[in-house]
Amino acid sequence: MQYLERAKLGLVKLNVNGRDVEIGDDYADGSLLWALRDGAGLCGTKFGCGVGICGSCTVHVDGRPARSCLVPVAAVADAEITTIEALAGENGELHEVLRAFIEEQVPQCAWCMNGQIMTAVAFLRATPDPDEDEIAAALDANYCRCGCYARIRRAVARAAKALRGRSDD
Q1: pLDDT computed for residue 44 by the predictor
Q2: 58-66: average pLDDT
Q3: When you count CB atoms within 10 A of the terminal residue's CB, does the N or C end of the chain come out lower?
Q4: Does any domain span residue 64?
Q5: Number of domains the chain contains
Q6: Which of 54, 87, 120 is the last residue of a domain?
Q7: Are residues 167 and 161 in contact, defined by beta-carbon separation less than 8 angstroms?
Q8: Containing domain of residue 63, as a range?
Q9: Is residue 145 predicted with pLDDT exceeding 60?
Q10: Is 17 within the bounds of a domain?
């Protein structure tokens, strides 16, 4: 109900990266992807396939990964939304998953990277000590045009070690 009342006033309010963000009501009936990119100016969430298959638009909704191209804005009006922009701290410090992707030199075209990273962050939160098979299964539904899957898996394993406080051997 609150969502519809705000939309009638010309604004929709979302909680994005711990802050209230107001976007125009022209995004009220659309997908979260475009509300974030165009409405809130957060372009880290990438458009890929537009039908929820590739995973490049993955964000967190209440801590869980979600394909933002499929999520209606109305469904997340009272949710906590986290985008990749939240993974870089205010002082420039990087989340361990971001750091690991850089150290493993994962990105090539970067079409899928933000979705891969957001999926990995949620996965490692739930599975802090994964084995290779668990990492592969967790990221299986995220596509990479460049075929960087081995580097992606190495980066996730590296991040898991770092998040557990271990150094690389």
Answers
A1: 94
A2: 98
A3: C
A4: yes
A5: 2
A6: 87
A7: yes
A8: 2-87
A9: yes
A10: yes
